[in-house]
Amino acid sequence: MRIGWYINRLRSMGPAEVLHRLDEQCRRIVSRRRDDGRERYPSPPLHQVLRGLRDAVLAATPAQRQAIAAAAQNRLGGEFSALGQTWPRRDRDQLFAPELWRLDPVTGKLWPGLESHTFDIDFRHRDDRGDVKYVWEINRLQQLPPLAAHLLLASDDQARAAIEAAIDSWHSANPPFRGIGWASGIEVALRAISLIVTLDLVGDRLGAATRQRVGEILAASAYWLPRFPSRFSSANNHLVAELAGQYLISLALGTESAAARNALLAEVHKQILADGAGAEQTPTYAAFTAELILLCAAAARQAGKPFPPAAEARLAAFADFVAWLPRNAISFGDDDEGRVLTLGDEPGYVRSVAAAIHGLLGMPGNMPEPDDFRSLFFGVPQGPAPAAQGLQTFVQGGLSIWRGEMNGRDVELTFDHGPLGYLSIAAHGHADALSLTLCIDGEPVLVDPGTWLYGSGGGWRDWFRSTPAHNTLNIDGKSQSIMTGAFNWSHKAVATLAQSERRPHWKLRARHDGYKSRFGVVHQRTVAQQADGILVTDQLLGGRRMAEIVFQLAAGLRADRDGDTVMVLRNEEPLLAIRFPNAAVDIRAGGEAPGQGGWVSPRFGARQPAERLAWHGEVGEGGIQIHLAAIARSQR
């Protein structure tokens, strides 16, 4: 597994990246001998970064105060949940034992700690301890800003004691650069941001020793981040987080880093495309990237050096893109629930970030939830924006969205004709070219399957990002793009939008070449509005093949088949009729192994059985047609 992983990674690298990786390895060897020890990173004087934050939190609404208090009480009660898992509950008098920072909540095993240099810990190929994302999640210290906000609002001494205990414990258990907590730059950066926000809120209420320890952690982080950057095939959201961390730490240390600022501004235009879509082909990672940039933009404004209008315009474009996405089914590609400022579980994360962008920029937009924590940092939109309706195509992002009415129902449809993902390994993309999703009256009906797990996902990780798991055509159960690891792809399907018409009835046509080299055919899909529904036409250009066309239902829905027509119901209410060319439709949910039936992952680390409709038959250039129609509420 380890040798194969390295071989596949090397195949995706160009000469410049190979040289970079060799140089990086040499720097790691030197670092093992030279860079350890707290004495190398004394605490410098610290400066406030988000100067207006205290006043903004003190002006919190009753709903925000209640949400902050609830989150804080959970933390003070020894509760912590993330990524679909709940950590073992801790006693109030020992909330932050040293082992907490190494504990996997699923396996109960401990990752290496201060006895191991961080570069000696194999977190990519040692899955016997569990998925490393769990242990990294609690090391981000994102539980501290809610405690700090609660301390500011309620003067709760328990919150102050908990913040000091957490910082002191983490500092003691994770000296530079020992243990799993220092193993990834993105983790170093997010932890630093949590500490900066905490000090900006309540630094004057913490003891001098605790503030000194924060300074030492920030000093070590400032040294570490520019020396081991994510570059080339890894220069995705990880790089943005690292640059944001560098920039905000430099402000906290009193010397703005022009290099970090300029590099971050360059990434704004790489990671958020001109039409507002995210380059990584996943809205949640795009929101995470946008939130990092937004926090830096807010800090730059308060430092008197605002970001250029072009950077703010790119953030606004992302917020406008989000306004078109289906409200309750906006995920595709990977989603690891990464956040920057959070109270905990946030099902409306992407829309919250979009509202924050409109708030900081003083623009109309969709309003956040009344208890939204993020709006304390960035404000709320000036007013509501007009509802997005009709057909919108995001050409660079490769996504078309239709929002309209069908048989008295509100319908939201997405059609994916974008690239697999970002950069050479397309790490967070899924093999979902020409896939559809459909919502009726705001509720998901035909869905993207989700993510499941990363490092410990095994065969299930592969299934959830495979073509047969998505609402598109596959041949012989093969994916359009070829996986070579949990985040690697070798052959990547190239999708192209061939036609986009709006009137009198809209029509979209796209194709991809993912099966051409193996099966000699190109998959072309046409999605067209008709008076009584939507017609989906699938063709294989260049030959004929036995194929499978999939429609994955949301969890909780059921399918009733009557001849060539499948009725999709929620409880006993008919929602959608799908008419196939014939009755060769297999309907299955769950199964012991990937591919035996339908599964959806509503969030990272969770999966549920859900009915998967799969039509099987021969497809050629003449194509086959499948008709979708929402069912009026009065029809039974």
From TrEMBL:
Chain ranges of the Heparinase II/III-like C-terminal domain: 391-621
Q: What is its main location?
A: periplasm
In the record, what terms sit under GO molecular function?
Answer: lyase activity
Q: Which keywords appear in this protein's UniProt record, sorted alphabetically?
A: Lyase, Periplasm, Signal
The highest taxon in the source lineage is Bacteria
Location(s) in or outside the cell: Periplasm
Q: Which InterPro entries match?
A: Chondroitin_lyas (IPR008929), Hepar_II_III_C (IPR012480)
A GO cellular component annotation here is:
periplasmic space
Keyword Signal annotated: yes
Lyase recorded as keyword: yes
Protein's name according to its UniProt entry: Heparinase
What organism is this sequence from? Answer: Mesorhizobium helmanticense
Lineage of origin: Bacteria, Pseudomonadati, Pseudomonadota, Alphaproteobacteria, Hyphomicrobiales
